[in-house]
Amino acid sequence: MHETDMTKALIFTVRDWLDKQSEKSAAQLQPGPPKVERVHLVVGEFTCVEPASLQFAFTAQTKGTFLEGVELVIQDKPLIAFCHPCQQEYKPQIGSQYACPTCGAPMDDIRSGRELKIERVEFSNAT
Amino acid sequence: MHQTFDAVLEMNLLQANQDGADANRDRFNRWGITCLNLMSSPGSGKTQLLEETLRSLQSELRMAVIEGDMTTQLDANRLRECGVPVIAINTGRACHLDSKMVAGGLHQLEHELEQENGQPSDFDLVFVENVGNLVCPAEFEVGEHAKVALLSITEGEDKPLKYPIMFREADCLLITKMDLAPYLDVSIETIIANVRQLNTHAKIIPVSSKTYEGLDDWYAWVRHQVNLRRRS
């Protein structure tokens, strides 16, 4: 269910950004608003977002909006932590073991896996 | 002719929510109010803890509650009995509060206080009682200064491992319903060790709203949070 809200948030964020772009292009007397073709996301493993559910929600919720038919490309990022006592990276086992497997130090420094990011947007302009 | 462009955004997916949360926090700061976001699974005792807290701290702090509930006013009505302003937000199908809903709640609070010739800056503390859910509320900031997670001892030792984000993000963890501990095969030490795998900074306090175990420690933590903001 929370992917529905994530998608809503995604649509708001892209629209906000696009509105700002349109203002800029209007100021520079460029042709009409750009059309979004593809949205690239980076979704970390250590977030509450399930990529398959997000894909589904995106397709369903963008119907009839400016993002209808736009392709959503999701890049997964694994959870990687850095253990300071051992000075090395390790991969925590989500659901069972987060502490460092070598020395048992708590998972403190997360190097990747918390991303929830719109990396880039591909769009086209009819000229 | 058809040209394609590529724009690098590198933008937080929840940027719009984050901006709203920052705006809410600015308002709290201007008013000198501390905001605590209470999160847990359904039935872990958020509302009863709040009832006790509101009654116990009422003589020293001016408090209000923003109450998120999916469909009913039941919790809000219970809290109104404690004699503090309660703004109820029905989230409908949404499983968490977001910053926009809380902004609406703040607007309503301001309006209600005005009608009684009061204002938000008369207040010290706002509790946001989030929707009962261990997953989503952890990702949606609402403008709080600190996150409080509750885990009732009946939920079992493994929950911090299964719902890691909530327990990692928490600044304070209350292990509730401690009065039931003698009847359960649950080790409080294991719960704490599991939380510590993920979160080294949270203050962990075992409490019971029934026997009042640990509540003085919780109140001391709340007072400390309020004093941090008062000074700054």
UniProtKB/TrEMBL annotation, chain A:
Molecular function GO terms recorded: nickel cation binding; zinc ion binding
UniProt-annotated binding residues for Ni(2+): 2
GO biological process: protein maturation
Key words of the record: Metal-binding, Nickel, Zinc
Signal sequence residues: none
Binding site for Zn(2+): 83, 86, 100, 103
Pfam assignment, any one: HypA
UniProt cross-references to InterPro entries, sorted A to Z: HypA/HybF
Annotated function: Involved in the maturation of [NiFe] hydrogenases. Required for nickel insertion into the metal center of the hydrogenase.
Annotated family: Belongs to the HypA/HybF family.
Protein's recorded name: Hydrogenase maturation factor HypA
TrEMBL record, chain B:
Domain of life of the native organism: Bacteria
GO molecular function: GTP binding; GTPase activity; nickel cation binding; zinc ion binding
Keywords: GTP-binding, Hydrolase, Metal-binding, Nickel, Nucleotide-binding, Zinc
Biological-process GO terms, alphabetical: protein maturation
Keyword check for Zinc: yes
CobW/HypB/UreG nucleotide-binding domain location: 38-205
InterPro entries: CobW/HypB/UreG_nucleotide-bd (IPR003495), Hyd_mat_HypB (IPR004392), P-loop_NTPase (IPR027417)
Pfam families linked to this entry: cobW (PF02492)
Transmembrane segments: none
UniProt similarity note: Belongs to the SIMIBI class G3E GTPase family. HypB/HupM subfamily.
Name the record gives this protein: Hydrogenase nickel incorporation protein HypB
